[in-house]
Amino acid sequence: MRAWIGFLVVLGVALAQRPVEIPFWHTAGPPGQEPLEEMIREFNARQREYRVVPSFVGDYREGGLKLLAALRSGGAPVLFHAELSFLGRMAQDNVAVPLDEYLSGIPNDFYPSFLEAGRFRGRTYGLPIGLSVPVFFYNADQFAARGLNPPRTWEEVVQAAQRLTTRAAKGYTLSSDIYSFNVLVMSRGGRIVDAQGRPDFTNPKVVESLEFLQDMVRKNIAQSRNIAEAQFSVADFLRTKTFMGIAPITMWPLIESRAPIPFRLGVAAVPRVEGGKVPLAGGALVVLRGASEAQVRGAVAFWRYLMEPTNIARWVRATYYMPMRRAAQAQLEDFYREDPRRRVAFAQVEHADVWLQDPEFTIWYSYLEDALERALKGNANARQVLEEAQRRALAVERR
């Protein structure tokens, strides 16, 4: 009997010391997968309360689809790496756990809007870990050959495109996906959503932006690609069929990791009017409903670990995501010094802002992209297609 009691005591102590497991589905592929999983191993090794168990579930879209399936059938994780545009839907559908009560004492040196990217209707549902801004890529050799400087305004983009366009190549590549279009709108001081986060496609700034792109296509100095043709946009740029374009800064290490580029890669800040913004995109950690109190605390503890300046710096070097805190900048000085283009591109952090938090985005974004493609590839009237997209989007909002 005593032996049995002793066994139960030992077993109870062992169970009490076992760390709380936190199944974690993440969407960080190369080059971010290795440093993220390395930091997970370090977090697990440095404390005994929690154990994060990672699983890579593909890119944002693939991960989102797998999560939806798991929520219906069972088997969803405790912690999920969600794309920001998916966050509002998760919060509205009561899938995500609000986390504000667990965030006391976090550092006050996060950049403006960065923590806001994880909030929805005044509450925190996501803990951002990878936020990116767009940058302006250009063929530096072609610019030098024509005596061109990196454009600082969109009017200078047009002028450069006119100088660069030949019979065999277009000066500029534009994309009819919502992200790329929104970059232009926000940089020109506009928004595709209103102050309440609802679609605002007929806003004068939005209409003017589409007309601006349409004019470049009509002048035959820009090539229009839709989202399904994104890989061709990159290929055209690398094969010198086009010479300028906008893309997330996270494309930079991927471009340079390919076969040698046949020209010097130019990287600059996105042209921007006074007061214009660059959109924050990326992902955040979301704790799912059903998590225990200990698992919620463990997930937040893991995020706090990722937000230590040394870890932020490691993550930035690998992925080119924005440094979340000012305290990390000192550890990135050598990173900026090695390549001055990085300092210029990362300096946009001061002008970054959240671009979208509407939970209905997952439905109405396709209406806007359809309007963009009809205007840029089909030469439809820009105002009319935006008005139609607005009607369809508001019908979704009213459901």
TrEMBL record:
Keywords: Coiled coil. The keyword Coiled coil applies. Residues 372-399 form a coiled coil. InterPro entries: Bact_solute-bd_prot1, SBP. This is sn-glycerol-3-phosphate-binding periplasmic protein UgpB. The lineage of its organism: Bacteria, Thermotogati, Deinococcota, Deinococci, Thermales.
